[in-house]
Structure formats: C-alpha cells, structure tokens
Amino acid sequence: MSTSDTLKGVVVGCGLGGSSFIKGLHQMDGFELVGAADASPDALQRVKDQTGCTQLYTDYRQCFSELKPDIVCVHTYPPTHHEVVQEAVKYAPKGMITDKPLGDTVAHGREIVDVLKAARIPVQVPHGHALKPAAEEAMHRVWAGDIGALRTVEIQCVNWDIMSAGIHWLHYLVLLLRDDLVDWVMCATESSAKTYRDGMRVGTTEITYLQSKAGVRGIMHTGDEVLVNSDFGNMSYRMIGSHGVIEWGTGGALQNSYLIQNAEHPTPTEIVPDYQQDKLKYLTILAEQIRSGKPDYTNIEASLQALEIVCATYPASKCQCKIHLPWDDAEIAGLTPDDPFWPGMPYDGVGGGRDGKTYRKYT
Ligand SMILES: NC(=O)c1ccc[n+]([C@@H]2O[C@H](COP(=O)([O-])OP(=O)(O)OC[C@H]3O[C@@H](n4cnc5c(N)ncnc54)[C@H](O)[C@@H]3O)[C@@H](O)[C@H]2O)c1
User: Fold this and answer.
1) Distance from the alpha carbon of residue 76 to the mean position of ligand 1, in angstroms
2) Is residue 62 part of a domain?
3) Do the bridges between strand 244-249 and strand 258-261 make them parallel or antiparallel, or are there none, so unpaired?
4) Best mutation site among 47, 50, 57, 99 for ligand 1, i.e. most ligand atoms within 8 A of its Cβ?
C-alpha cells in the first residue's frame, strides 16, 4: 500500500536488466512502480501484463515530466545511459539506479558520476554479484587475511564478454583491492564471430591482464568459448593468497557457496553463508541513503574504475600496449596501432627500442 513514505519509481528500459527493478518497485515494501518507459511497445505491454502498471511511455522524457518520480532506474543500452540520466536529473529525483556499464565510454560514465554527485542524488549501480552472499563473505575473508596476502585473482567466464559481465567481475576486483589501485591493463581480444551484446560490439574470446600498484595480478578469461575449469559452472572467481585460496562462482552445484583452502581447511572446504540477498538489496540501500540524506558514492566510483579498466582493454588489445590507470583521455586518444613492434620476430637493430638485457625496473 502506498503511504507518504513510499518511494515512487519508474523504470526506463524494460528488458532483462530492467525486469528485476520492475519487480522490486512493484513488490517491495516502501516502493511503488508508478510508470515505465521503453522504446518498444511490446516491452511496455509485458510490464502491464506483469504488474498492472498503466503509465507507460515510449518517450522517457514525457515519463519524467508527467510522473516526476522519486526514483529513476535506467536499464537502456550503455551508449544511452548518460542521456537518460541527464534528462532524469532535470526533474530532481530523490535517487537513481543506473545499470552497468555506466556508459560505452569512460567520458560518458564520468558524466553520470559527476552530474549525480553535483546534485547530491544517491545512486546505486546494480552489480548484483558483489551482493551475492558467497561473494560478499569471500571478500570479507580476503580482507581479514584468511588466505594471507592476496597475490592473484583469476576469473573465468563463458558466454559473456569484458563489457557485459566482465565489468561485474572488475567492479568486485576494485572493491576487493580497496586502496590498492589498478596500475595497468593489457588485453588480447579476437573477434572471429563478430559477437555483439547489449548494443555493443564485443570480443569473441578475450583475455584481460592487469597489475595493481602493490603487484596483485588480475587475469580474466571471457568469451563465447571459454572452458571454465572449475566446480562453479559457467563462472569462477578464484582469489589466490600467500596462504590459501578462496573461490566462488555463479553456476554449478556450488553456486551459493564458496570454497576455501587455508591452514584451517587443508583441503578445499565448502562454506554456505547463512543469509540471503540479491541485487534488489540495491533498492534498499538506495532508500536508506535517500532517507538519511547521506549519499555514498563508493559503489558508483568503483563501477567507474571498472569501466576505466574495461575501456582500457580495447585500445590495449588494438595497439598492443599496456594502459596505465587512472584513465587519461589525452594519453588514450594519442594511441596509434600504426607501427607494431611484433614480438617473436628477429630484432634488426633499427627503430630504437629497449635493450631488455640491461633494463631493470625491479630487481
Ligand atoms: N545488472 C545486471 O545484472 C544486468 C543484467 C542484465 C542487463 N543489464 C544491463 O541492462 C542494460 C540493458 O540490457 P538488457 O539485457 O536489459 O537488454 P534488453 O534488450 O533485454 O532490454 C533493453 C530495453 O531497453 C529498451 N531501450 C533501448 N534504448 C532505449 C531508449 N533510448 N529509450 C527507451 N528504451 C530503450 C529496449 O527497447 C529494450 O526493451 C545494459 O546496460 C545491460 O548491461 C544489467
């Protein structure tokens, strides 16, 4: 039942990503789904069938101006997120959900962060896996030192790519590393199948490799044909420390658990967290921030850092280079794939370069 405290929300983009928040606003106490916008009349019809909501718009601008919602949830394709957010902010919502990736470019992602922070509007990016109990508990155990010092994170993920799902795993990595920032990123992508997803061209097979300032390695295998060699089905997140290993994932029989191996558990041991939550907790967190008047931008800042890593992978792959973070627009714009220095070919002594036998950055 709607009360004066009820937060009235609309969803823009009523496909897979928007469906959870349509359900959340419709069913959760303290929220009300007052309208929805989607360019597709079929998508709007599905919202009507599922929720009975009748304030349906093919133009989100009209939706905002007529309904003036408290909460706007943006689940269109990445290249449009910034336009929808900019438009929504004109109507001063109390809070926003903006789906991942924040944008198709770092500039668009930064635009969203900047405009929401300037207006002090609380926002959450629904990186649902960061709230998955097994993943959340695993992160706390790494922070607590239960596997010693974190050395390597290895992610394997089939059927998805760096931009669509990889950003979830990178967002988790940014949170896991806390104040140890990602220093540089390398990547190899191949596009043999010309794969596209969510309105973006993506790699068919991809390997992302990164190093943090403290030397933690991140290795992420994504793509249509990645064979995940794990008990966690279609996605495995392995955190390897100096004194143990923790692994969680999204598929297989263990998907609600994590495995830990350390001094206390000499063989891999399954732990099942004793609580439940899913990505709709982001609505609860948002409501808490709206009611307290204290926006916390940790989640969206981590999402922006993850977008920087994602957006660095493509030029890194194209230009055969590593890209240092934080993101530098001028440096990235100046990259050129023109003159590749192909490893594995004889060195002919011309064209400069570095003598690797004498160079020592670390000893
Ligand atoms: N957080 C998550 O776990 C999660 C899960 C799935 C998708 N997503 C994200 O949701 C976004 C959409 O992906 P999807 O899988 O829902 O795609 P989808 O194709 O299922 O749905 C997208 C919907 O947006 C509508 N749309 C697109 N542009 C629009 C515009 N300018 N105005 C109004 N409507 C518009 C389309 O008509 C479509 O109905 C992407 O950013 C994706 O990464 C997030």
Assistant:
1) 4
2) yes
3) antiparallel
4) 99
